[in-house]
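Q: My labmate handed me this sequence with no annotations at all. I'd like to see what the chain might look like in three dimensions before we decide whether it's worth expressing. Could you predict it?
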Amino acid sequence: MAKKLVILGGGESGVGAALLAKQQGYAVFLSDGGSLKEIYRSELQQAGIEWEEGGHTEERVLAADEVVKSPGIPEKNELVKKIRAGAIPVISEIELAYRFAGNSRIIAITGSNGKTTTTSLIHHICRVGGLDAALVGNIGTSFAKQVAIDPRPVYVVEVSSFQLDDIDRFRPHIAVLTNITEDHLDRYEYKFENYIKSKFRIVKNQLETDYFIYNADDPVTKESTDKFNIQSIQLPISMERENNAAFIKDGDMYVRTGEDFMNMSIYDFTLKGKHNQYNTMAACVTAATMDIRKEKIREAVQTFQNLEHRMEHVATIRGVEFINDSKATNVNSTWYALESMEKPTVLILGGVDKGNDYALMEELVKEKVKAIICLGVDNTKIHAAFKESVPVIIDTASAAEAVGAAFAHAEKGDVVLLSPACASFDLFKNYEDRGTQFKRAVIEL
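A: Here is what I predict for the chain of 445 residues:
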């Protein structure tokens, strides 16, 4: 009899897992507590997969041989507790994809900040270097769906800590950890060490022939590398000291892996800002371990286009530049954005707070921000944190209102920066929706 696989959650990863499992001969049932997007409904129907929405039929879920859980569903969910109590194995969609990925090489990227940029850049370098690589995971197409519909020899996978929580044998040939800062602590019992453990699961199954690329200047990562049993070859990146992998010194990046080494001026990187120098180093070391020629790596780094909603230039209106960094959903992301600002800044901040410590931003806000425009339902914490640092703090309730208020407080030569440091679910569907509405409001000024 076919193994019964229940998939909880019918978003991109859930539907991808359902398609792959069906193709591999599982008896598949997908259950979503909310409502499915029309596109996912039709994909499930076409594949002949049973599904339900608007609630879960418990007896069907608890009759599963195995459950694939959406990364968005927390452990404290009542149904998840019952699944655990019934000792039913729970895996993530990346674990399922890994089972059927064959001999393809997997490059997996995680980290609190910079992972989407680093993943996209690695994929771009692979493509320029002539590798047939797919860009999957948190960033777009689910890993499982790609394996089912269009398998490739190389997968560049962006993975979140939530996806890593439910892996068993998932093993990337190259694991990249960009950094670890306090994020999503609401999902980890507000214990930072739980979140750190989660991130380090990326190396759990790696062997001596695999590679682990990490930021040696990131204090949390550096302190943690000795606490985990890492079998793979460690390749640190740094701006503070020379090493045997990659470092930046006097405005030049040096990448050494094995016998070969390349160097390149940081002024040739298309990605600007110190944090992006780390992202670029991580991507270049990854490419070097994949034996991509250094001329191709150099060409790719010089031609990379930045992502939508990540430090995206929208327009300059009457001398005021507008930047969409809606993807900054935690304090550290916003810190990095502010760090790269070179002009007086009007900052649009706020949304759903995940336990933010705004004190981390205080110095930069004092130094660079002339006004804060709050864009959220509850902005009391932002007022409390910055009332001493910034002369103007204004509450707004829509993207258009926020853009109007920001423009009114900006002068020629200033920047209006949407970098909210919060999730977007109070006023918007997601960070993309927030960024899109911001851009529309700017263009309509």
